[in-house]
Specification:
Oligomer: homodimer
Low-confidence stretches of chain A: none
Helix content of chain A: 25-40%
Number of domains of chain A: 2
Shape of chain A: elongated
CATH class of the largest domain in chain A: Alpha Beta
Number of strands of chain A: 17
Largest sheet of chain A: 8 strands, mixed
Order of helices and strands of chain A: HHEHEHEHEHEHEEHEHEHEHEEHEEEEE
Structural class of chain A: alpha/beta
Radius of gyration of chain A: 23 Å
Distance between the termini of chain A: 25 Å
CATH architecture of the largest domain in chain A: Alpha-Beta Barrel
Chain lengths: 401, 401
């Protein structure tokens, strides 16, 4: 079902469809493997999101999901700012950001050169600890950098409302926040508010909404101990996209209603605060497709193997190797394959690693060497979290179309 | 025990030891994180191996394990050839190979440009299928490229002698080899012999020896159907190194005895064949150390976290994230830490990913920001299989010392 709907969306089921012709032309022009990100789908996704979010809620893009300059340039026109995790991400975000956009740096273990880059760019620094605040203040000299304090909440994002936040490397434990806030008040830092991120890649609107309501309550409690009024509350994100069989899209209408109530409550409890969500996968994941070509079709002991020219070196997450998901797979299709006889295949990458496998026991239209295979939902966390140097095969082309 | 013996070998337990002083100086000169590979340990490993292997058995280095030019240059003086998996690896291997060395290209899904590069370099091509042989022959023109046929054996490397070889993307099923050999005989290819690789990273000498004896028997059977006498038999490798608690080094003396018997048997059954082993991790893994620096020491809900400046972006395998190994960890030590009070810590990388964790509940000497942490057994499959672009943090320095 997911694959079918994505074939329809990308218009690639049959050979005469516009999407099939376009992707075939891209593969011929640029070689395979390649990633294509559809600009119109980025626009559409942001429009959906803006229609759902309460007025005034800001959208930050989490650059780690996809830091390609052409993608950032498009998003720069659409979002209110960028969240970065390193000085190199910051440099790319600055180049893409519209005037007046927010730049924020988040992440544990920021290096001194990261903090220096944040200062030079006048980025907001999301402090992961009071020690980090002290390092920032030392580096800041006469400047008074703007900071958020990241809180490790006593809850985490889950389909059931669990109160199970445990020890973590991220942020300051909520029960230690008072001491950290007092410490920040003594440093030459401009305290703006809180960053609380209870989890990621969730498809359950109610769970996300619950997490954000809990986040608001926690921030409102902690505000009493803060050295200044809370002017920014970053609620995190965690909006997922469906990638595996049986997964369904996030119910945006339901989430929107709940976030509307959240915004009303925030206007009472934190009247000076601008609310932000920070999204990566949700903004770019559905807009990308990975295309590779069948190099060989072989039969081994009764199983048909399609060996593609792309594998986990480009898109590890989709191979499932990361999570031991045998028999689960991203939505995969043979471009233009509708109408061909179907067969059960194992779809593999070309690497000398048994787990370089896209899918097993998957019914696909019969494919031959030269055919193009599309892996959908491939716009986020692709090359960014893949071992690109494995066997030193060529990097993929990356296109905004 | 493993960590202790490695601290002794690298001389890093106490602050005054030669290794501690050297690594501290390297970190100061080159920044952290860094990988240092000790040339003398490469030499020593090859000397051990040569002393163990029967006379005349060749040693190929599998470039995918570590393709750093400085490492290849050293190994070029020590091995009989290089096994590569792509045209880029081939180019690096050619630059490093001593005159007369063997170059061989192996791997499923070889691209046409890989085959062209192999032809240009006069490399031996290890065919993964008859179709690949036909592609190679078409590209070869007047040349008659040298080939091995890779066989998917009916057994795999395991501590108990199991006969469980199943379907695979690698090679030609042994029961289909007759047809493939006949096909090769009709192509303008110079058939040299077989490549049979039953498994990797094994610490059980008996299992490796059993696999190699089974490989020889299979090759001798298949030789009857081959278009030419078997002049090369690549026995694979699979020699492991201990990385996890409780693992012990491969018993080389025992393996050597068994391979001696194998060589005698081969001289009767395949009298024209040169035997090869193909090794990656075993040659370089123990010679490398990964050094990173503590950026922050924090306590969250009763647990101590050391946040390092290096993580799974450089050395994914050692974090255990790949295999869900909670509470197992590579050998880790605080450089010069002997004599400090010990504490139980969670050692983390700096990335915004919960699984960017080196070890949990590990007893280490108390470490403070600025201290160097060494991860041993880090010479193979490090950056080669890590997502180097994750969060665009700087790449590690890589040094041969």
């Amino acid at each position: 079902m997911l694959t079918q709907s994505l074939c329809a969306r990308w218009q690639v089921a049959g050979p005469a469809e516009a999407g099939s012709r376009e992707l075939t032309a891209l593969a011929e022009a640029h070689g395979t493997p390649l990633f294509a990100t559809r600009a119109a789908m980025l626009d559409e996704r942001l429009a959906q999101l803006r229609a759902m979010l309460p007025a005034g809620m800001r959208v930050l893009y989490s650059v780690k999901a996809n830091a390609r300059p052409e993608v950032l340039a498009r998003l720069g026109l659409l979002v209110d700012g960028f969240d970065v995790a390193s000085s190199a991400e910051l440099e790319l975000a600055r180049a893409a950001a519209a005037p007046g956009s927010v730049l924020a740096m988040t992440g544990p273990g920021k290096r001194d050169d990261d903090l220096a880059a944040a200062l030079a760019a006048d980025a907001v620094v999301v402090l992961e600890s009071l020690d980090e605040g002290a390092r920032l203040a030392r580096a800041a000299g006469e400047r008074r950098p703007r900071v958020l304090l990241r809180i490790n909440p006593p809850f985490e994002l889950a389909a059931e409302s669990r109160m199970s936040g445990g020890p973590r490397k991220f942020g300051v434990d909520s029960e230690q926040a008072g001491a950290a806030l007092a410490g920040i008040g003594e440093l030459p830092l401009d305290f703006l508010g809180f960053h609380i991120y209870p989890g990621s890649n969730c498809l359950n609107a109610q769970a996300i909404a619950n997490g954000m309501h809990a986040t608001l309550s926690l921030a409102a409690e902690l505000a009493a101990q803060a050295p200044a009024p809370v002017r920014v509350l970053n609620l995190g994100g965690g909006f997922g996209i469906p990638c595996l069989p049986g997964e369904a899209s996030l119910a945006l209408d339901r989430l929107g209603e709940s976030l509307g109530r959240l915004a009303s409550e925030a206007s009472r409890r934190l009247p000076e605060a601008t609310l932000c969500v920070e999204l990566g996968r949700f903004l770019v994941g559905e807009a990308g497709v990975y295309l590779s070509r069948v190099v060989e079709r072989k039969v081994s002991r009764g199983r048909v193997y399609l060996i593609l020219d792309g594998g986990l070196n480009h898109h590890w997450q989709a191979t499932g190797a990361l999570e031991g998901r045998r028999h689960l797979h991203y939505p995969i299709w043979v471009v233009g394959g509708a109408g061909r006889p179907m067969e059960s295949v194992t779809v593999c990458g070309p690497l000398c690693a048994p787990h370089d496998t896209w899918a097993e026991h998957l019914n696909l239209p019969r494919a031959e060497p030269g055919d193009l295979v599309a892996v959908f939902q491939s716009g986020a966390y692709t090359t960014a979290i893949s071992p690109g140097d494995f066997m030193l095969r060529p990097p993929p082309a990356q296109l905004l179309v």
